[in-house]
């Protein structure tokens, strides 16, 4: 096998994608960021992973999002990214925004998931070793944990920033009410949360729905000076043309098929809506993936999303996705038409699981 050529980053990398400020903080993200949940585990050739990461960085996507459990197997995405970082990107450390998280199942026993100080702080130590870094830029509580006092989770996040092991902290999949409560504690401790990472797409609009006190998550984040990075804007690939072909093999070529992307999510009724959205995207001169990303990033005033956090299994998908930023404008008629097809597709698999840990102990 020929050795990988030495990587020299594209000198015009910051010109390709716009940047957006994260809430009221000093942190700035590219409008489209790359997540490594799938396609960066040990089941994928390292060279393909390297090609995607190099291309992303060359196109100005300087934010890479990880978590302790990404793989498969759990933990391998951090190790693979750490190797590519070490070999290709270390000299750009000051340009990169790297995030990781802890909250979902990782280690055996009662401190291997949730929001305890024991789990969060121990997991970050592991993550830093795998990532071959001294610090991450953002560390997240990956999910609310109803069995751990919110004060304990927040105190752990505060200590993590003070220890220098993360520059900023955030939360993921917390409700509007939980977000307000967590931010009140964090402000008291002197380390405000800067960012929330919720799922959000045309087929999953829970962040817009009024919660307790009639406030939506997007509104709560604005009120709390927090930015929002929306994960799974393509509904794990459903909002692309990938599942519109009649070839069942196109479903099976996804590493997530039957795991996080369940067959019952690809219902014929949902795919009919996806087909209509695909036609609309064509009329806009975009791919469906591009329109879906543009929709998440559309102007919603103060409550606009900061960054769309996409996944990609190839350089071609990555390039397609990034080109979404060329047209983020929608007419009122287009938005109304999208609303008619914005059916809930049952893909918010993160919601119920974070409301109870009954049976886990
Ligand atoms: P997504 O962008 O909704 O889906 C990505 C998948 O869609 C790709 O893996 C690919 O599927 C397909 N795809 C992407 N671009 C395409 C294109 N242009 N044309 C056709 N198909 C395309 O996002 P996601 O991967 O579900 O999540 C993105 C990131 O969000 C994750 O990596 C992670 O960083 C973060 N995330 C966070 C949480 C949390 O709890 N905080 C949960 C989930 C995700 P194939 O791989 O099948 O080709």
Strand and helix layout:
Layout: E1 19-21, E2 28-30, E3 32-35, H1 46-58, E4 63-65, H2 76-89, E5 97-102, H3 117-131, E6 136-141, H4 150-162, E7 166-172, H5 176-189, E8 195-197, H6 217-223, E9 227-231, H7 249-252, H8 268-283, H9 288-296, E10 307-310, H10 315-322, H11 332-341, H12 349-353
Parallel strand pairs: 3-4, 3-10, 4-5, 5-6, 6-7, 7-8, 8-9, 9-10
Antiparallel strand pairs: 1-2
Helix pairs in contact: 1-2, 2-3, 3-4, 4-5, 5-6
The protein binds NADP nicotinamide-adenine-dinucleotide phosphate.
Give a structural overview:
With 361 residues, the protein is an alpha/beta fold. The chain contains twelve helices and ten strands. The strands form two sheets. Strands 3-4-5-6-7-8-9-10 form an eight-stranded parallel barrel, surrounded by five helices. It has a two-stranded antiparallel ribbon with strand order 1-2. α4 (150-162) links the parallel β6 (136-141) and β7. α1 crosses α2 (76-89) and α4 packs across α5. The protein is globular and about 50 Å long. The structure holds NADP nicotinamide-adenine-dinucleotide phosphate (NAP). NADP nicotinamide-adenine-dinucleotide phosphate binds at residues 35-39, 65, 142, 172-173, 197, 231-237, 240, 242, 254-256, 289, 309-313, 317, 320-321, 350.
